[in-house]
Amino acid sequence: MTETKDTTVQAAGCLLWRRSPVDGALELCLVHRPKYDDWSWPKGKLKRGEDPLAGALREVEEETGYTAVPGAELRTLHYMANGRPKQVRYWAAEATGGHFTPGDEVDRILWLSPAAARNRLTQPRDRELVDDLLTALRHA
Question: Which domains does the chain have, with CATH numbers?
């Protein structure tokens, strides 16, 4: 398929979560992208023919250094990015190990409470995913 300005960009990501090593409270991982100076969920474009969940987990590991076990699929976001339609599928994913190393694409990560994560996210559309994650974890 030839990419055009009308072709929807396919992407995937995760709401990476863990239990705090200090008090067991739920923490969510946000990534800072210096190119955009924004805070968002780890996500990225899918490779040609790549399974969306596999792509989401690959992006999480590339951007955060953490491996994860996927959980429930959350909502899919649709928006315009650089003049093209974009679709991002998201999953809940529990961090199982790893270590963050700053890079060109992501220079910082933060582990935050759900309320703090919601407030730190740059794009309002990303905030509704916090509620999706909390609902999914309650029903897991």
Answer: 9-138 (3.90.79.10)
Three-state DSSP at 37 gives coil
Q: Which region, left, alpha or beta, applies to residue 98 given φ > 0 means left and ψ of -120 to 50 means alpha?
A: left
- Tens of pLDDT, residue by residue over 8-62, are 999 999 999 999 989 999 999 999 999 999 999 999 999 999 999 999 999 999 9
Q: How far apart are CA 63 and CA 101, in angstroms?
A: 9
Q: Is the pTM of this model over 0.90?
A: yes
- pLDDT tens-place string over residues 110-120: 999 999 999 99
Sequence letter at residue 106: V
Torsion of CA 42, 36, 120, 83, to 10 degrees: -80
- Rounded Cα–Cα distance for residues 107 and 109 (Å): 7
Q: Which long-range contacts (CB under 8 A, 24 or more apart) does 116-121 make?
A: 117/28, 117/30, 120/30, 120/39, 121/30, 121/39, 121/40, 121/41
In the predicted structure, residue 104 carries a pLDDT above the cut 90? yes
